[in-house]
Write a structure and sequence with these properties.
The protein is mostly beta strands. The strands form 2 sheets. Strands 2, 4, 5, 6, 9, 10 and 11 form a 7-stranded mixed sheet that branches. Strands 1-3-8-7 form a 4-stranded antiparallel sheet, with no helix packed on it. It is globular, with a radius of gyration of 13 Å.
């Protein structure tokens, strides 16, 4: 099983980034996919969640209206489109695959929002 995040980087406040998470080694469409983030000195928090076929999505209040989670099951990839970024969005972003008792994590990608 492998989850590989990409797309992080340095962006100015108000800017946008799109994160990708490429999955392999498991039945992708059978798993919920989530994005989490962890800022320095803080606990890891759930950012967004999407069901296996994409019919259900959920977001943390802090990102509603700014972030959009989506998935392409043909490419085994989940995305996080992040718009109107704020300095407080700075964190390492992780993707997670979960289904019942099974859960897999990626290694994370750094997002820094700063002028």
């Amino acid at each position: 099983v492998q989850l590989v995040e990409s797309g992080g980087g340095l962006v100015q406040p108000g800017g946008s980034l799109r994160l990708s998470c490429a999955a392999s080694g498991f039945w992708f469409s059978g798993y919920y996919m989530s994005w989490y983030r962890q800022a320095p000195g803080k606990e890891r928090e759930l950012v967004a969640d999407i069901s296996g076929i994409g019919g259900f999505t959920a977001y943390a209040d802090s990102v509603k209206g700014r972030f959009t989670i989506s998935r392409d099951n043909a490419k085994n990839t989940v995305y996080l489109q992040m718009n109107s970024l704020k300095p407080e969005d700075t964190a390492v972003y992780y993707c997670k695959a979960h289904s019942g008792a099974y859960a897999y994590w990626g290694q994370g990608t750094q997002v820094t929002v700063s002028s």
